[in-house]
Design goal:
Strand order of the largest sheet of chain A: 2-1-3-4-5
CATH superfamily of the largest domain in chain A: NADH:ubiquinone oxidoreductase-like, 20kDa subunit
Shape of chain A: globular
Number of helices of chain B: 13
Shape of chain B: globular
Number of domains of chain B: 2
Oligomer: heterodimer
CATH architecture of the largest domain in chain A: 3-Layer(aba) Sandwich
Number of helices of chain A: 12
Strand content of chain B: 15-25%
Radius of gyration of chain B: 22 Å
Number of domains of chain A: 2
Distance between the termini of chain B: 74 Å
CATH topology of the largest domain in chain A: Rossmann fold
Structural class of chain B: alpha+beta
Number of strands of chain A: 5
Helix content of chain A: 40-55%
CATH class of the largest domain in chain A: Alpha Beta
Distance between the termini of chain A: 65 Å
Strand content of chain A: 5-15%
Order of helices and strands of chain A: EHHEEHEHHEHHHHHHH
Helix content of chain B: 25-40%
Order of helices and strands of chain B: EHEEEEHEEEHHEHEEHEHHHHEEEEHHH
Largest interface: A-B, 46 and 49 residues
Structural class of chain A: alpha/beta
Amino acid sequence: MATRPRLAVFKFASCDGCQLSLLDAEDELLEFAGAVEIAYFLEATSAIAPGPYDIGLVEGSITTAHDAQRIQDIRAQCRTLITIGACATSGGIQALRNWADTDEFLQAVYASPQYISTLATSTAIADHVRVDFELRGCPINQFQLLEVVGALLQGRTPRVARHAVCLDCKRNGTVCVAVAQGLACLGPITQSGCGALCPGCDRGCYGCFGPALQANPRSLSDQYLATGHGPAQLLPLLRNYNAAATAFREESERIERLAGAGD
Amino acid sequence: MTADPGLIPIGGERRIPSDRLQDLIDLLRQDDYSVVGPTVDQEAIVYDEVTSVDQLPRGWTDEQGPGTYRLARREDDALFGYVVGPHSWKKYLFPPLSTLSAADRTEQGWEMRRVEEAPPKYAFLGVRACELAAIAVQDRVFAGGPYVDPIYSGRRQSAFLIAVNCTQAASTCFCTSMRTGPRCCTGFDLALTELPGEFVIEVGSDRGGTLLARLTTDACSARTLAAAEAARQQAVDQITRRMDTTDIRNVLLTQLEHPRWQETGERCLSCTNCTMVCPTCFCSTVEEVADLKTEHVERQRRWDSCFNPEFSYVHGGLVRNDIRSRYRQWLTHKLASWQDQFGTSGCVGCGRCITWCPVGIDLTEEVAALREKPACP
């Protein structure tokens, strides 16, 4: 390739774990670095090349007015914009503030809250700018990221499955922890991507990859509510890394209403 | 003509004490079989490779209902005192992931190659009657038509099947409605009936008869044979679930707009569990997997499901774009259009889809509801 596509990686409100997933791809990293020109990636290098960029990877959510402006500038700089991780695609764990009083948090957490300038919400990048592809996960799966970038370089559609985690459990031979152990597992409504990690370790799925395509959370939580799992367990399960993803958010709010009605 | 001393004829029955079952496993292993049988893992009785009878679920049973499965202790030391678990033999005959072909980029262009596997030689220990029926269904699917699946048929041809007659039933079992069990009648090499402290072994094929002749066995007394018959009858008597299969093909295919589909579509998670545990479901997806530089490409086949929304993707969109239509597709295929396609029902009455549905959707209940005329609008 005469000129390699120029890649930039940007960070918003996030833990950096998704960027690290890329740096963690040790076996593929050299190949990756050979396939693209890494023009802007502060997590990896202090060498900064100015835009525009062919591919922009965005980690993190929008939580400040400054970031809301910055993402507009980044969008204008990037031909293809890909958001990576639960924060960028649904607002992340920090979207829990969407149901709370942010000022109260500021008073409780910071010694000098007057220096903090923040929005009342944490929102996904796609709520602010057009996004060309959303890669889910907390953190993302590095192989999916390589697949997405690879597909982009080859001009084809990325192969990123949107079915439920259950299909992966079954391919792995993992016995259903919901049916055999009565655990509240989000697998049936969560998108594949982790390889069904938690059920393979005798734990229910935490929903790190967000709602599966056409997920049916209502039926699942009705089943869990009917079999001894209370709202106090289901609410935090749904309000986790992808709390603000539409299907999870709507269901957690329904459970909250049910619990309120039961008081 | 005298009987061949090296062969016990088909239909012949012999007896071994339970503590000599290990001899059968050893003999199979001597003949280079990987013996796969039931074992306790992940809070369930699953199928895995076994080398010793001590790995079998001695004294364990399963308690099943819609959406629930629990291991439980038995009061005896039965080795096969359970029904069916989350796994089925299809994971060995139709593996969840297979590489079909590969290609490498060379200076002369793409070099394509087949990925041939030497089929593993399995002996399945503990195949239930419904599972024998399921294997017979998949034989038609993968090897019955003009296009024979080489992966399935290679594994199938070398597989040695040791059936076990059920002596109990789960609440989810309905093999009697599907006429697939619980008695193992055909399709096995050997069939065991477990009694306290002993097994009756019936020969189902010449291969089975030859193997059994190499084991030290005893003749069966009339009392043992009667006890085995009574034990098998116990399973029949315990089956309470029924599915009315009368004219089921036409009943289902003329009820495509029944309101029940919508109601069940609202319960169904479309999570794929039923199809994955089903011993006859055979859908797969074939994907090209390339490295970043596209110098090496593999064509991989993976288990897939009609409940995966993207399974029905064709250019432009999803053909079955809601859960209602996916559930309807699955049930009508399984029980109705499967008959047109393969000449049998796709359901063997094992009840796995009932047990392993996280919300406990029960196809026997669905069929009963679909037989009811909907109320006038």
